[in-house]
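Recall the central idea of this unit: under ordinary conditions, the amino acid sequence of a chain determines the structure it adopts. In this exercise we apply that idea directly, starting from the sequence alone.
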Amino acid sequence: MTKKKLTKLVCAAVASATLIFGGCSPVAEDEKPVTNEENTAVTTATENNATKDNVINTSTASAAKISANVNSSARNTPVVQVAKNVGPAVVGITNKAVARDWFNRPVETEGVGSGVIFRSDGYIVTNNHVIEGAREIIVSLSDGNTINGTLVGTDEMTDIAVVKVDAQNLPTAHFGNSDEIMVGEPVVAIGNPMGLEFQGSVTVGVISALNRTIELNDRRFNLLQTDAAISPGNSGGALVNYDSEVIGINSAKLAQTEVEGIAFAIPINTVQAVVNEIMDKGYVSRPYLGVVLFDKATAARYGYQLNIDKGVFIFQVALDSPAGRAGLQRGDIILKVDGKEYNSASDLRNDIAGRKIGDTITITYDRDGVEHTIEITLREMPQSSN
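Accordingly, the structure predicted from this sequence is:
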Protein backbone atom coordinates (compact mmCIF):
# COMPACT_ATOMS: atom_id res chain seq x y z
CA MET A 1 0.00 0.00 0.00
CA THR A 2 1.31 3.43 -0.91
CA LYS A 3 1.89 6.19 1.67
CA LYS A 4 -1.01 8.15 0.13
CA LYS A 5 -3.46 5.29 0.65
CA LEU A 6 -2.26 4.75 4.22
CA THR A 7 -2.81 8.44 5.03
CA LYS A 8 -6.37 8.30 3.74
CA LEU A 9 -7.08 5.19 5.77
CA VAL A 10 -5.76 6.69 9.02
CA CYS A 11 -7.77 9.90 8.51
CA ALA A 12 -10.94 7.91 7.82
CA ALA A 13 -10.39 5.85 10.99
CA VAL A 14 -9.87 8.93 13.16
CA ALA A 15 -12.92 10.68 11.73
CA SER A 16 -15.18 7.67 12.40
CA ALA A 17 -13.85 6.95 15.91
CA THR A 18 -16.79 8.70 17.51
CA LEU A 19 -19.20 6.31 15.75
CA ILE A 20 -17.29 3.02 15.94
CA PHE A 21 -15.68 2.83 19.39
CA GLY A 22 -12.31 1.04 19.52
CA GLY A 23 -11.45 1.22 15.82
CA CYS A 24 -12.87 1.09 12.31
CA SER A 25 -13.15 -1.25 9.35
CA PRO A 26 -12.50 0.91 6.29
CA VAL A 27 -11.94 -0.43 2.78
CA ALA A 28 -9.09 0.87 0.64
CA GLU A 29 -9.86 2.37 -2.74
CA ASP A 30 -8.62 -0.83 -4.47
CA GLU A 31 -10.45 -2.99 -1.84
CA LYS A 32 -7.23 -4.68 -0.83
CA PRO A 33 -7.03 -6.14 2.70
CA VAL A 34 -5.24 -4.09 5.34
CA THR A 35 -1.94 -5.43 6.59
CA ASN A 36 -1.17 -5.95 10.29
CA GLU A 37 1.26 -3.04 10.19
CA GLU A 38 -1.36 -0.72 8.75
CA ASN A 39 -4.04 -1.90 11.24
CA THR A 40 -1.66 -1.27 14.13
CA ALA A 41 -1.07 2.29 12.94
CA VAL A 42 -4.83 2.94 12.66
CA THR A 43 -5.58 1.46 16.09
CA THR A 44 -2.83 3.50 17.73
CA ALA A 45 -4.10 6.72 16.21
CA THR A 46 -7.70 5.92 17.27
CA GLU A 47 -6.68 5.05 20.84
CA ASN A 48 -4.66 8.26 21.11
CA ASN A 49 -7.67 10.30 19.96
CA ALA A 50 -10.05 8.49 22.38
CA THR A 51 -7.62 9.09 25.22
CA LYS A 52 -7.67 12.82 24.47
CA ASP A 53 -11.48 12.78 24.46
CA ASN A 54 -11.52 11.03 27.84
CA VAL A 55 -9.10 13.58 29.29
CA ILE A 56 -11.27 16.44 28.04
CA ASN A 57 -14.48 14.85 29.40
CA THR A 58 -12.86 14.16 32.79
CA SER A 59 -11.53 17.71 33.02
CA THR A 60 -14.94 19.15 32.10
CA ALA A 61 -16.70 17.04 34.76
CA SER A 62 -14.17 18.05 37.40
CA ALA A 63 -14.50 21.72 36.49
CA ALA A 64 -18.30 21.48 36.69
CA LYS A 65 -18.08 19.83 40.11
CA ILE A 66 -15.70 22.50 41.40
CA SER A 67 -17.90 25.25 39.94
CA ALA A 68 -20.98 23.79 41.64
CA ASN A 69 -19.20 23.72 45.00
CA VAL A 70 -18.01 27.31 44.61
CA ASN A 71 -21.48 28.53 43.63
CA SER A 72 -23.11 26.72 46.57
CA SER A 73 -20.72 28.34 49.04
CA ALA A 74 -21.05 31.76 47.45
CA ARG A 75 -24.85 31.62 47.38
CA ASN A 76 -25.26 30.48 50.97
CA THR A 77 -24.58 33.97 52.31
CA PRO A 78 -25.38 35.39 55.77
CA VAL A 79 -28.46 37.02 54.23
CA VAL A 80 -29.71 33.60 53.09
CA GLN A 81 -29.11 32.22 56.58
CA VAL A 82 -30.98 35.13 58.18
CA ALA A 83 -33.94 34.58 55.85
CA LYS A 84 -34.01 30.87 56.75
CA ASN A 85 -33.57 31.38 60.50
CA VAL A 86 -35.76 34.42 61.14
CA GLY A 87 -38.15 34.57 58.18
CA PRO A 88 -40.56 31.90 59.50
CA ALA A 89 -41.03 33.92 62.74
CA VAL A 90 -42.17 37.07 60.90
CA VAL A 91 -45.96 37.24 60.44
CA GLY A 92 -48.51 39.45 58.77
CA ILE A 93 -51.01 41.33 60.94
CA THR A 94 -54.31 42.54 59.50
CA ASN A 95 -56.13 45.24 61.46
CA LYS A 96 -59.86 45.43 60.82
CA ALA A 97 -61.26 48.65 62.28
CA VAL A 98 -64.28 50.89 61.91
CA ALA A 99 -63.93 54.48 60.72
CA ARG A 100 -66.37 57.22 59.72
CA ASP A 101 -66.86 58.48 56.18
CA TRP A 102 -67.68 62.05 55.09
CA PHE A 103 -71.31 61.48 56.03
CA ASN A 104 -70.38 60.13 59.50
CA ARG A 105 -71.38 56.62 58.50
CA PRO A 106 -69.41 53.66 59.94
CA VAL A 107 -67.10 52.13 57.37
CA GLU A 108 -64.90 49.07 57.91
CA THR A 109 -61.26 49.70 57.16
CA GLU A 110 -58.38 47.28 56.88
CA GLY A 111 -54.64 47.78 57.33
CA VAL A 112 -51.75 45.37 57.15
CA GLY A 113 -48.48 45.35 59.06
CA SER A 114 -45.94 42.87 60.34
CA GLY A 115 -45.05 41.19 63.62
CA VAL A 116 -42.37 38.96 65.14
CA ILE A 117 -43.08 35.79 67.13
CA PHE A 118 -40.92 35.82 70.27
CA ARG A 119 -42.54 32.93 72.15
CA SER A 120 -43.52 29.59 70.64
CA ASP A 121 -46.87 29.63 72.48
CA GLY A 122 -48.12 32.45 70.30
CA TYR A 123 -46.82 35.79 71.61
CA ILE A 124 -46.02 38.36 68.92
CA VAL A 125 -44.50 41.84 69.14
CA THR A 126 -45.55 44.52 66.68
CA ASN A 127 -46.07 48.29 66.49
CA ASN A 128 -48.86 50.02 68.35
CA HIS A 129 -49.88 51.88 65.20
CA VAL A 130 -50.30 48.55 63.38
CA ILE A 131 -53.12 47.39 65.71
CA GLU A 132 -54.39 50.77 66.92
CA GLY A 133 -58.21 50.93 66.91
CA ALA A 134 -58.54 47.31 65.80
CA ARG A 135 -61.95 45.67 66.02
CA GLU A 136 -60.44 42.41 64.81
CA ILE A 137 -56.82 41.23 64.52
CA ILE A 138 -55.89 38.49 62.05
CA VAL A 139 -52.40 36.98 62.09
CA SER A 140 -51.03 35.39 58.89
CA LEU A 141 -48.28 32.84 59.62
CA SER A 142 -45.41 32.12 57.26
CA ASP A 143 -46.83 28.65 56.51
CA GLY A 144 -49.98 30.20 55.05
CA ASN A 145 -52.29 29.64 58.02
CA THR A 146 -54.31 32.52 59.51
CA ILE A 147 -55.34 32.81 63.17
CA ASN A 148 -57.36 35.40 65.06
CA GLY A 149 -55.25 37.37 67.51
CA THR A 150 -56.03 39.11 70.78
CA LEU A 151 -54.34 42.24 72.11
CA VAL A 152 -52.30 41.60 75.26
CA GLY A 153 -51.25 45.21 75.77
CA THR A 154 -49.88 48.27 74.04
CA ASP A 155 -47.64 51.26 74.70
CA GLU A 156 -48.27 54.32 72.58
CA MET A 157 -45.22 56.12 73.96
CA THR A 158 -42.82 53.62 72.36
CA ASP A 159 -45.12 52.38 69.57
CA ILE A 160 -44.96 48.80 70.86
CA ALA A 161 -47.77 46.25 71.22
CA VAL A 162 -48.05 42.55 72.04
CA VAL A 163 -50.55 40.23 70.34
CA LYS A 164 -51.40 36.62 71.30
CA VAL A 165 -52.63 33.80 69.06
CA ASP A 166 -53.91 30.43 70.22
CA ALA A 167 -51.17 28.19 68.85
CA GLN A 168 -48.21 26.12 70.03
CA ASN A 169 -44.76 25.21 68.71
CA LEU A 170 -44.51 28.26 66.50
CA PRO A 171 -41.13 29.33 65.07
CA THR A 172 -39.55 32.07 67.14
CA ALA A 173 -36.96 34.80 66.63
CA HIS A 174 -34.01 35.33 68.97
CA PHE A 175 -33.52 38.85 70.34
CA GLY A 176 -30.01 40.30 70.32
CA ASN A 177 -28.46 43.22 72.21
CA SER A 178 -29.01 46.59 70.54
CA ASP A 179 -26.40 48.21 72.81
CA GLU A 180 -23.72 46.29 70.89
CA ILE A 181 -24.73 47.52 67.43
CA MET A 182 -22.08 49.26 65.34
CA VAL A 183 -22.59 51.93 62.68
CA GLY A 184 -21.95 50.33 59.29
CA GLU A 185 -22.99 46.89 60.49
CA PRO A 186 -24.94 44.97 57.80
CA VAL A 187 -28.59 44.26 58.59
CA VAL A 188 -31.59 42.56 57.03
CA ALA A 189 -35.18 43.82 57.20
CA ILE A 190 -37.97 41.23 56.98
CA GLY A 191 -41.64 42.10 56.69
CA ASN A 192 -44.65 42.57 54.44
CA PRO A 193 -44.17 45.73 52.37
CA MET A 194 -47.35 46.95 50.67
CA GLY A 195 -49.42 44.11 52.16
CA LEU A 196 -49.61 40.33 52.36
CA GLU A 197 -49.04 39.96 48.62
CA PHE A 198 -45.36 40.55 49.40
CA GLN A 199 -45.26 38.68 52.72
CA GLY A 200 -41.82 37.74 54.01
CA SER A 201 -39.90 40.16 51.78
CA VAL A 202 -36.19 40.52 52.58
CA THR A 203 -34.18 43.71 52.06
CA VAL A 204 -30.57 44.42 52.94
CA GLY A 205 -28.72 47.48 54.22
CA VAL A 206 -26.52 48.76 57.02
CA ILE A 207 -26.94 50.56 60.33
CA SER A 208 -26.66 54.19 59.26
CA ALA A 209 -26.78 55.78 62.73
CA LEU A 210 -27.52 55.02 66.38
CA ASN A 211 -29.74 56.91 68.85
CA ARG A 212 -31.40 58.89 66.10
CA THR A 213 -34.08 61.12 67.63
CA ILE A 214 -37.24 61.96 65.70
CA GLU A 215 -40.53 63.50 66.82
CA LEU A 216 -43.89 62.14 65.72
CA ASN A 217 -47.22 63.42 67.06
CA ASP A 218 -45.48 65.40 69.83
CA ARG A 219 -43.60 62.31 70.97
CA ARG A 220 -39.87 61.79 70.80
CA PHE A 221 -38.42 58.44 69.75
CA ASN A 222 -34.81 57.25 69.99
CA LEU A 223 -34.36 54.94 67.03
CA LEU A 224 -31.89 53.02 64.90
CA GLN A 225 -31.44 54.42 61.41
CA THR A 226 -30.93 52.07 58.48
CA ASP A 227 -30.90 52.25 54.70
CA ALA A 228 -32.56 48.85 54.34
CA ALA A 229 -35.75 49.38 52.34
CA ILE A 230 -38.74 49.65 54.69
CA SER A 231 -42.11 50.41 53.10
CA PRO A 232 -45.69 50.65 54.44
CA GLY A 233 -46.54 47.19 55.74
CA ASN A 234 -43.01 46.58 57.06
CA SER A 235 -43.92 48.24 60.35
CA GLY A 236 -43.67 45.70 63.17
CA GLY A 237 -41.27 43.49 61.22
CA ALA A 238 -37.75 42.46 62.18
CA LEU A 239 -34.43 44.22 61.70
CA VAL A 240 -31.84 41.45 61.98
CA ASN A 241 -28.05 41.30 62.18
CA TYR A 242 -25.91 38.73 60.37
CA ASP A 243 -25.96 36.47 63.46
CA SER A 244 -29.72 36.02 62.90
CA GLU A 245 -30.52 38.13 65.99
CA VAL A 246 -33.38 40.62 65.97
CA ILE A 247 -31.85 43.96 66.95
CA GLY A 248 -34.82 46.20 66.17
CA ILE A 249 -38.51 46.35 65.34
CA ASN A 250 -39.15 48.31 62.15
CA SER A 251 -41.30 51.32 62.91
CA ALA A 252 -41.22 54.56 60.95
CA LYS A 253 -39.99 55.63 57.55
CA LEU A 254 -39.13 59.21 56.73
CA ALA A 255 -41.94 59.87 54.26
CA GLN A 256 -40.46 62.50 51.98
CA THR A 257 -40.28 61.98 48.26
CA GLU A 258 -36.91 63.72 47.99
CA VAL A 259 -35.31 61.43 50.60
CA GLU A 260 -34.33 57.82 49.94
CA GLY A 261 -32.61 55.21 52.07
CA ILE A 262 -33.73 56.51 55.46
CA ALA A 263 -35.77 54.17 57.67
CA PHE A 264 -36.02 53.56 61.40
CA ALA A 265 -36.37 50.74 63.89
CA ILE A 266 -36.99 50.65 67.64
CA PRO A 267 -33.90 49.22 69.42
CA ILE A 268 -34.64 45.72 70.67
CA ASN A 269 -33.47 46.51 74.22
CA THR A 270 -36.19 49.16 74.42
CA VAL A 271 -38.66 46.69 72.95
CA GLN A 272 -37.79 43.96 75.46
CA ALA A 273 -38.25 46.25 78.46
CA VAL A 274 -41.68 47.34 77.20
CA VAL A 275 -42.72 43.80 76.26
CA ASN A 276 -41.74 42.47 79.68
CA GLU A 277 -43.91 45.06 81.41
CA ILE A 278 -46.84 44.45 79.05
CA MET A 279 -46.57 40.70 79.65
CA ASP A 280 -46.48 41.32 83.40
CA LYS A 281 -49.47 43.66 83.77
CA GLY A 282 -50.85 44.48 80.34
CA TYR A 283 -49.49 48.03 80.16
CA VAL A 284 -46.40 50.14 80.86
CA SER A 285 -46.51 52.26 84.00
CA ARG A 286 -44.99 55.73 83.77
CA PRO A 287 -44.85 58.84 85.93
CA TYR A 288 -46.79 61.85 84.75
CA LEU A 289 -47.23 65.50 85.58
CA GLY A 290 -50.71 65.98 84.14
CA VAL A 291 -50.26 68.98 81.87
CA VAL A 292 -50.47 69.76 78.16
CA LEU A 293 -47.37 71.76 77.21
CA PHE A 294 -46.67 74.16 74.35
CA ASP A 295 -43.49 75.76 73.16
CA LYS A 296 -43.38 78.15 70.21
CA ALA A 297 -42.99 75.36 67.65
CA THR A 298 -45.81 73.15 68.96
CA ALA A 299 -48.14 76.12 69.41
CA ALA A 300 -47.61 77.16 65.80
CA ARG A 301 -48.31 73.61 64.67
CA TYR A 302 -51.75 73.81 66.29
CA GLY A 303 -52.47 77.30 65.00
CA TYR A 304 -51.55 79.32 68.09
CA GLN A 305 -49.12 82.20 68.42
CA LEU A 306 -47.15 81.96 71.65
CA ASN A 307 -45.54 85.20 72.83
CA ILE A 308 -43.04 84.05 75.44
CA ASP A 309 -39.29 84.61 75.56
CA LYS A 310 -38.40 81.48 77.51
CA GLY A 311 -39.89 78.47 79.26
CA VAL A 312 -42.73 76.09 78.36
CA PHE A 313 -46.36 77.24 78.38
CA ILE A 314 -49.01 75.21 80.27
CA PHE A 315 -51.97 74.96 77.90
CA GLN A 316 -54.07 72.59 80.00
CA VAL A 317 -53.98 71.02 83.49
CA ALA A 318 -55.79 67.85 84.60
CA LEU A 319 -57.47 68.70 87.89
CA ASP A 320 -56.70 65.43 89.69
CA SER A 321 -53.15 65.21 88.36
CA PRO A 322 -49.95 65.89 90.33
CA ALA A 323 -49.71 69.33 88.67
CA GLY A 324 -53.36 70.13 89.36
CA ARG A 325 -53.12 69.09 93.00
CA ALA A 326 -49.98 71.18 93.43
CA GLY A 327 -51.76 74.30 92.15
CA LEU A 328 -50.35 74.78 88.64
CA GLN A 329 -52.76 76.55 86.27
CA ARG A 330 -53.35 77.12 82.59
CA GLY A 331 -51.18 80.02 81.47
CA ASP A 332 -48.31 79.30 83.86
CA ILE A 333 -44.89 79.09 82.23
CA ILE A 334 -42.54 76.38 83.49
CA LEU A 335 -39.01 77.78 83.54
CA LYS A 336 -36.99 75.11 85.39
CA VAL A 337 -37.22 71.57 86.73
CA ASP A 338 -34.78 70.83 89.55
CA GLY A 339 -32.81 73.89 88.51
CA LYS A 340 -32.52 72.95 84.82
CA GLU A 341 -34.00 75.40 82.32
CA TYR A 342 -36.42 74.18 79.65
CA ASN A 343 -37.58 75.89 76.47
CA SER A 344 -38.77 72.75 74.63
CA ALA A 345 -41.97 70.86 75.46
CA SER A 346 -40.44 67.60 74.20
CA ASP A 347 -37.36 67.99 76.39
CA LEU A 348 -39.47 68.60 79.48
CA ARG A 349 -41.73 65.63 78.70
CA ASN A 350 -38.68 63.40 78.28
CA ASP A 351 -37.34 64.60 81.63
CA ILE A 352 -40.57 63.55 83.36
CA ALA A 353 -40.75 60.23 81.46
CA GLY A 354 -37.22 59.39 82.56
CA ARG A 355 -38.08 59.65 86.24
CA LYS A 356 -39.73 57.16 88.58
CA ILE A 357 -43.19 57.05 90.05
CA GLY A 358 -43.02 58.67 93.49
CA ASP A 359 -40.12 61.01 92.64
CA THR A 360 -40.47 64.57 93.93
CA ILE A 361 -39.39 67.38 91.62
CA THR A 362 -39.00 71.13 92.14
CA ILE A 363 -40.60 73.31 89.46
CA THR A 364 -39.87 76.99 88.96
CA TYR A 365 -42.65 78.72 87.01
CA ASP A 366 -43.79 82.18 85.97
CA ARG A 367 -47.31 83.42 86.67
CA ASP A 368 -48.20 86.94 85.58
CA GLY A 369 -44.54 87.97 85.54
CA VAL A 370 -43.74 86.63 89.02
CA GLU A 371 -41.56 83.55 89.58
CA HIS A 372 -42.75 80.83 91.96
CA THR A 373 -41.29 77.52 93.14
CA ILE A 374 -43.31 74.42 93.96
CA GLU A 375 -42.61 70.76 94.78
CA ILE A 376 -44.60 68.04 93.01
CA THR A 377 -44.63 64.28 93.60
CA LEU A 378 -45.06 62.29 90.38
CA ARG A 379 -47.76 59.62 90.25
CA GLU A 380 -48.50 56.77 87.86
CA MET A 381 -50.11 57.85 84.62
CA PRO A 382 -53.74 56.66 84.40
CA GLN A 383 -54.29 54.24 81.53
CA SER A 384 -57.02 56.43 80.10
CA SER A 385 -54.35 59.13 79.64
CA ASN A 386 -51.73 56.85 78.16
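The chain has four domains: 3-75, 85-165, 179-272, 287-385.
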